[in-house]
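Honest question from a wet-lab person: if I give you the sequences of every part of a complex, can you actually get the arrangement of the whole thing, not just the pieces? Trying it with mine:
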Amino acid sequence: MTAHRLSVRFRYALHRSRTGQIALLAAIWLIGQAVVHVTGLPLPGGIIGLALLLFLLGSRLMSPLSLRRGANWFLAEMLLFFVPAVLAVLNYPQLLGVLGLKILAVILGGTISVMGVTAMTVELSGNWRARHAASRSGNT
Amino acid sequence: MPLLALATLEPWLATIFWSSLTIAFYLLAKQLYSRWPRWWLMPLALTPALLIVVVLVVHANYGDYLHGAGWLLTVLGPVTVAFAVPIYEQRALIKRDWAVLAIGMVAGTLTAVGTSWLLATLLGLNGTLRLSLLPRSISTPFAMLVSQDIGGVPNLTAVFVVMTGVFGAVLGDLLLSWLPIRSSLARGALFAIGAHGAGTARANQIGPEEGSIAGLLMVLVGLLNVLVATLISLLLH
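Yes, you can. This is the full assembly:
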């Protein structure tokens, strides 16, 4: 069996294997960690890995088919992996009192503002662009 | 409860106990929420709540739990890498709507940081607590990084991110019924920039277009925040 045929078979197997893709994503993260360790960049390994993977996909060195199943699994089950961080609330029993209510007020007020401002900005700038494009094509 | 006492004493038993309990509660919460989609049954809220009850019942503390199940946090690294795939697959949308998306992300981020700072100051919250509140609108892996950069407490930020997600999904529905919004771009942006992953899940239920816009924006706004926070912390030190 030639090296080419072996590599085709390997890719075909990888496209179907979620476990293999999960391992591949973890390997890219480890490369990112190693880059941070060696260069001392002020970014976490995950962000470096993300940039590396975008480069591999954008330059067509890697097909999204080799990663889609694994990536979808990570994104779908993401919540599980930060549960341990949420339990930190145990170290802050004062959050159950007045302080907690104040924080809740900041979160509710802040979230309503962010959602309102974001949605209206996108809606209005989208409308503006549509009108702009229409008037431009009307002139020509 | 001799078995439970043992589970908090022996390190290897503690790892098995807390890890499998976390995964089991998570799977249970997912099942319950898919059958009864109430906000308080969201896996995001229910899993930590059930675990907190167990920690208190067996007289353990956060340190014990973290020794057992803290390794799960490491997986957030590969999760960040996985975000590259949706960004790449939505490149046509980025090319077409990049200007509108960029304006929305900047407006949303400025509003998030501005209102958090203002409301916290008005209510007399300051110091690391106020800093930990600033990045709560973005996805957890990114929010914890930003919190670290600007001098907050990443674990507290994780708690606030979860609260934002749980209430954001509900608040988003209310706002959509009040505001005159027609484009799916704006509906997706509302959920993604206001309530990160939980909002994106809600946007997916509204429509596939809203869902993919939200998924993309959630990542881009998280990245934007991390890069800006890294720059700020480099400039400050």
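Two things worth pointing out. The two ends of chain A are 61 Å apart (CA to CA). Residues 92-140 of chain A form one domain.
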